[in-house]
Amino acid sequence: MTQTTDSTGAGADGALSFDLTSRPWVQVLRSDGSQDELSLRQIFARAGELRRVTSDLATQEFALIRLFLAVAHDALDGPKDIEEWAELWEDPDCFTPVQAYLGEHRERFDLFHPVTPFLQTAGLRTARDEVFSLNRIVADVPAGEPFFSARMPGVERLTPAEAARWVVHVHAFDTSGIKTGMTGDDRAKGGKVYPLGTGWAGGLGGVFVEGETLRETLLLNLVAADTEGLEFSPGDRPAWRREPCGPGSDGRSTTGLRDLYTWQSRRVRLHYDADGVHGVVLGYGDPLAWRNMHRSEPMTPWRRSPAQEKKLGRSPVYLPLEHDPARSAWRGIAALLADRLEETGGAEAPSRLRPRILEWVARLVAEGLFPRRFLVRARVAGVRYGTQQSVIDEVVDDRLVMPIILLHRQDPTYAHQAIAAAEDADRAVRALGDLASDLARATGAEQEGAKSAARVEGFDALDQPYRGWLSAMAEAPDPFEYRQTWQRQVREVVGRLGDRLVDAAGDAAWEGRAHTDNKGGTHWLNAGLADVWFRRRLARALGDPGHPGSASSGGGATAPADDGPPGPSPTGPPDTDHAETAPEVHV
């Protein structure tokens, strides 16, 4: 196992040095389950022996994968087309050219280089020569609330390896807010630069494809230059093949994937000594608008923005579709399959675009490089910012294994049924939440807490069943019948949870109390009536063949409104916002 050192090395002239091409700094999981820390050279030399990159946060792994892809794209100068990609896939030594490439650019990968430190600006300083706490770049230390951090109450020192990982991360996911102005940056007013947005990846709903090994992961995300829907430029270069950044910004736009994957959204300078890194200077770098970047950025879904279209007077305008931390990846599957399902032959642009990285993998299957039953392991990673994007509130980290047939261009039937099945689960869990709310009303208790807890329990209970159902979908000869199998499973699981809620309701709920509905009518609500309403909602949500108002098995159709009057009758619950409408599903 590679030995890790906490101290900096020294160059021939005695200056401190930390060469990322030869010094261990990337945390990895080997295929045998052991953990290690490797240099860039070792990463590419042993990629076939490694399971994946590991990291402090999922967002750090996302940022590192993009860095490695920039190295691979630039070292291989491609792949230019799918035929060249296929040759790489078949060649176990496909990354051999990376070794010479890293040797050629080794100087730019020195974390402590006096002139061109890795992803930093040499001589960066504030007017007062302030050096700030490392909390500014270490994202797992919540600002002002370090109660659940392993680094409590802050970060005094980092090893060079740790510091290198957080430098990569800060360019991708740094928070917005007012930052100290840097000397020489003409954007500084009164020593401050006002908010210019988060790091580039912070605005994305990050998605990449995982393989069985790190080699497969890198190749599956190594998009060929002839990919439809993405723009490539012959002048595209990563950050280390550009002139070092000064303290300000020249306002340029991105030139392609290599540039975008290493975009310098911040200006950074580490302060260090022989014992490691002890401080940082951090300011704004190159801002980049997320608007209509869908032809440049493949690792996120996109949504049309009516507000931006109205403001700019043009259409369509697409913005990244960010992850919702409250939803598991499977509940947002529509965002991963989106635009192909909306093509109707008209001129109207789709309301959403799925990640181009998934479109690329679908093409590999369409070209016969993988079988139709190939399973796509979509990894999602992102952040939810709070307080005007000045702090990180939550980090999203999830995986979804799905058959490639869901991305089929000509036949969207399987994808339609996969999305509809997620909507089945959503409607059923709404019905469970409404049951908990009705039982609470029957006793005069607070409703929202009970409803929320029941919904969480419902989604938790359906999480693994849906993932298993989805991954086996390619084996189903009839996707409609396969969805009906799912509906029966949901009815059983959610019905059983409903039984538990009713059984635990207590005598007060069975006795009940008078309740006034939204139309001003008064009726007697107890556990028995709440259970009747729940069974009826569940039947409607899951396509009960015996119920004429049930959801269709042909898609996520909206169930019709109640055909019975409100009141204390088993024909229908009061008119409230229950699970009668299939929700729009987001990541």
Automatic annotation (TrEMBL):
Compositionally biased spans, kind Basic and acidic residues: 575-587
Pro residues bias spans? 563-573
The organism's superkingdom is given as Bacteria
Q: Which Gene3D superfamilies does the UniProt record give?
A: 1.10.132.100
The record, for InterPro entries, names:
CRISPR-assoc_prot_Cse1
- Stretches the record annotates as Disordered: 234-254, 543-587
**Any idea what this protein is called?**
CRISPR-associated protein
The protein's organism comes out as: Streptomyces viridochromogenes (strain DSM 40736 / JCM 4977 / BCRC 1201 / Tue 494)
Traced from the root, the source organism's taxonomic lineage reads: Bacteria, Bacillati, Actinomycetota, Actinomycetes, Kitasatosporales
